Description:
By secondary structure, this protein is an alpha+beta fold. The protein is about 50% helix and about 20% strand. It is globular, with a radius of gyration of 26 Å.
Amino acid sequence: MFEKIEELERRYQELEALLADPAVLGNQPEFRKLSREHSDLSALVESYRNYKKVLVEITGNRELLADPEMKEMAEAELEALEEQQAALEAEIKLLLLPKDPNDNKSVILEIRAGTGGDEAALFAGDLFRMYGRYAESNRWRVEVISASESEKGGFKEIVASVEGDGVFAKLKYESGTHRVQRVPETEAQGRIHTSACTVAIMPEAEDVDIDINPADLKIDVYRSSGAGGQHVNTTDSAVRITHLPTGTVVACQEERSQIKNRAKAMKVLKTRILDTIMQEQSARLAADRKQQVGSGDRSERIRTYNFPQGRMTDHRIGLTLYRLDAIMAGDIGEITDSLRAYYQMEALKQQSEAA
């Protein structure tokens, strides 16, 4: 392990020299590429350098154990240093885990009301607001691509892009079935109803990720429906794109411009097709290793939001928090961090078992 890190540290030093080279500074594409590589290595190199400093201090303190006057102080310092050593070793192992190439990408977020009728649609709206507020706290940009509102509020379905740095890394474990238990406003007897929504978090496809043959597309334009004033009824601005080989259908009518709607629909179409490919690859890997870790399986019930008890439980990691109001207001950082830590530990276990 440490031979590999030494090699990466040498590469880090090489990158530092290259980034100071005027020839590289004048070549912006190359400079950005090398800067990303330098940034990716910085946390690992910093942890490794701290680790080497701690080893030197441990050696020095062990030598002091032979001195009766310094022994007590050396023993106390040695205990603290050995704890630091163990913590840094664990940190380095995590940093050495293979990086998910999609972690830095923006995402397409899809929320669909499931069982529960109007109450499920209302909860879909609540979930969308929750993610929107979390995005705002991270300075991400949220843009609605398509939405199908229900009669009593909320959404039967809503699709949006969430753009920013590291969006997929933080949200990728949100995919799955979210269950809500609460008393609907229309419930006269005060009975608790259970409803559900499905959430899909898909890394936004780039042109280099997937190539679609225009001949495989059927594109329909039609008049928008819903809010929007006179323009809605006079212009064929809404766009529906069907990918014939897979049967994937995407519609967009949020913009007044047909060109903008078409661009948004294509972005979602590419993302959905790429997501299907990724899901198939993930399923094959799961069959090979008998366990699927962090797959984002849409059919999996991942979380329950119990309003009478003010409780949120994530069933995958057994995390229960009694601050549901704050969570629904977008304070989900503790949940996303706990999920990332859990799946990193699972990956470490698999890595050690394979070694």
